[in-house]
Amino acid sequence: MTMNPELGLIVSDVCQLEDHFKSAPVREVEGEYGRAGLKIVGRWAVICRSGFDGDYILPHQYNTGAYLAAFQVLGLTEVVGVHSSGSLRPSLGPGTLVIPDDWISFSPPRHTLISGQRRHLTPAFSRRVRHRLADAAWQAGIRFENGGIYWQSPGPRLETKAEIKVMSNFADLAGMGLADEASLAQELGLEYGAVCSVDNYANGLGAPGLSDEMIRAQSAKSVAVISRLLECYASLPREG
User: N or C terminus of the chain: which is more exposed, having fewer CB within 10 Å?
Assistant: First the structure.
């Protein structure tokens, strides 16, 4: 097992990881914004937003600054976020992978690392990471949507049916963590891109009785395809 990873990876839940990731030991890394537990497997330093062990961390409790700063401590500059998301479009069914190209978040940011300085960033994903994710998906033979808008809600509850009707006019995906993560990565100067696993139709669009158990079960079904994508991503030639 290498102790010199090259890439950062953040996932929503341990169910999105294959067994060799789950079995790796947790290493605590102390950064400028707190402590984060991560696992090092091959080229990846892996953080689970909801935690690896013990109590489940809900989306509004994510210490995103600590997660991203831990990668900086390890000298990493390139980060991929894997997000469980709900579809806002009938044509975008569960099991689909989306590489989003923009996001919406009208909720007050849960975190910002900018203070006492004039610094107004123009939000954007890293074009380099987005292109590499798309290249990896093509090489792995994975069907995916290249582009899409993610709407972040504050959580931890799911959105109401009325909220989904509004959101579906402007976005393709709904979730609770991507906007904060992408924004903070940019503040820290990290190159960040995301892949979204569509794990359910948003409230009111699919079958009645949407539950967290259903979402988690679908997320677990996507492990193999996400693993192939990440394996191919890690094998792409590094620049410089």
Answer: C
CA–CA separation, 78 and 189 (whole Å): 10
Question: Span 182-196, mean pLDDT?
Answer: 95
d(Cα 38, Cα 122) in Å, to the nearest integer? 29
Sign of the CA dihedral with 226 first, then 231, 236, and 237 last: positive
Residue 195 near residue 229, CB atoms below 8 Å: yes
The whole-model pTM stands at 0.91
Where are the chain's structural domains? 7-235
Report how far apart, in Å, the C-alpha atoms of 39 and of each of 36, 47, 176 are: 10, 7, 23
Closest CA to 24 of 56, 1, 43: 1
| 225, 58, 119, 103 alpha-carbon torsion, rounded to 10° | 50
Please give the CATH number for the structural domain made up of 7-235.
3.40.50.1580
pLDDT > 90: percent of the chain: 65
The CA–CA distances, whole Å, from 7 to 114, 119, 194 equal: 24, 27, 13
Structure tokens at 223: 């492990």
pLDDT at 22 over 90: no
Length of the chain: 240
Q: What is the pLDDT of residues 129-184, one digit of tens each?
A: 999 999 999 999 999 999 999 999 988 899 999 999 999 999 999 999 999 999 99
Enter the tokens of residue 130: 């987005």
